[in-house]
Amino acid sequence: MSVSSIPEFRELHTHGPGSLTESLTSMFQTEAWHAADGDSRVARQLREIGVDVSAIWAASRWNMGDDGEAPNRRHPLPGDPRGPQTAAALTAIAARPRAAALLGVYLWSQASDALQYTFRHGRIIVPLRAFVETWATCRDSAPDDVCRAEGDAVAVLLRTLITQMHTSAARSAGSLARLADAAAQAGDRCGDLLRAARAIPDPRSPFRRALVPQAVTRIRYFRALSEAAGAADDAMSGQPARLAPALEGLRAAETDRHLNYILASELRAYRMHLTELHRNLDSTWLTLDRLRTVYIYPFGLRDVSPTAAVAAIRELADRDERPELLGVQAFAVRGRLKMDDVWASVDRAARPYGGVSLSMPNVRLEQPDGSFIAELSCDVRFTEFGNHYVRFRYSAREQSPQQVRDARFRLSNLHADIRVRWISPDGAPVDVDHAGSPPPERLFDLADLLQRATTDLVREGTEIAQGRAHVVTTVYEASRGPGPAAPRAERTPVAMGDELLAAFGSQVLLQPVSYGTATLCDWTLRQRNPVLLEGVRHLGDVVAVATNSTTVALAGTAHFKISQYGSLAEFVASLNGLFSAWNATLADHLRIVATMLADHDVNNGADLAERKERLTREQLRLHEFASEVRATLTTITSPTFLASALESRMLNQLLQAAHFEQQAAVVTERLRELLQEPIAARLAALERLHGDRERAAEAKRERGRRRLMDGTLSAITVFAGVYALIGTVQVALDADLIGPLQAVTATALVTIGALVTGVAVFNWTRGR
Question: What domain of life does the UniProt record list for this protein's source (predicted)?
Answer without folding.
Answer: Bacteria
